[in-house]
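Sequence in, structure out.
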Amino acid sequence: DFLCISLVNGFIQLRYNLGDKTVILQTFQKVHANGNTWHSLKAGRAGNEGYLDLDGINITQKASPGMNVLDTHTDFFVGGVSSLNLVNSMAVENEPTSFTGCVREIVINNRELKLTVTDPKDGANVGDCDGTVCGYTVCKNNGTCQVENSGFSCSCPQEWIGSTCEQSIHCSQNRCGSQALCIPQPTSFSYICACALGWSGKYCDSKIEFFIAKFVGNSYIKYTDPYYGKRDLQHSRISLNFTTNQTEGLIVWMGKGEDEDNDFLAIGLANGTLKVVINLGERISVPLIHSKYSTCCDERWHFVTVVQNETCIKVYLDEELILFEDIDPQRKYTALNYGGICYFGGFEIGRKVNIVTYRLFQKEFVGKIKDVVLFQDSKKIQLMKAEGYNVYNGNYGN
């Protein structure tokens, strides 16, 4: 499989192969070769339907029956490759050559790549295209960069301050405590503090401990599994207790949550019922809609366990088996390569659940979670020792 964007005789060309055939899209217009004009390029695919957009002019290749998942296990290259042998002969029209020109603002699946000296994994013979200390997006939040003898300065919009316009005026005098995040509230000319795990209070200055995690809707915990490298990923398991009065919410997402091709196992609520979704490589969804289990939002504690045995999935709710299904009898993908990452309640601040999960789940979780166990571990996860924000002590009350 491959996906390649290249410049061919002045035209932009997109080629991709999902395992059965190579699709080729090419722009109608040429790019300017004077080196002074920036072009906006958007390209990609939804299933096996491709699209290519150059400066607002769109070309779409309608989908035809066939494979619909891009299964690549290589590095992502920009401008060239470390060895021409890595380029599939069908990925380019002529002999592969490296790109000469400038590239900026690369966004892959809604995440911008940092084109700096230190962030990429590797590279060679790449210089600064702007040629000045201003570079690109040195000034944040629509600030204007000006070159000066001593370096540069930023002229900031009204509500931003700092040497690179990085700080909101509403957070300039904030009292948020240790490790807390200041979140500006422009409409009220104020701010709120997002508390790091283990802290609470208006200014996140009160130390707390808990074994029951309380999520309030803009909360999340990100747990990194220290035993991931030793796991048998063809036989995974997760169990936990939860309580809520909401009909929608993401309870747990085992997976990186970075792009659509990442493996994941997710548990949440949809229309008041328990919903489990699993992707072992083909984005296969397993919906659980059982009318007799439509009372998960009754503010009582519920115990859920999901067991994956290769492609066979078992789901237990309150110790009763409610689903047993083989999601892929062909056994094409059998391992849950979730990267050792588990999210509880939601994702990092600013990342919306409905966007990250491609609308599989609509909202962040509001409620409580406790007694999380991975695989056949003898000990529960210590949620307090993970990373997270806006999670509170749920030890008391119902």
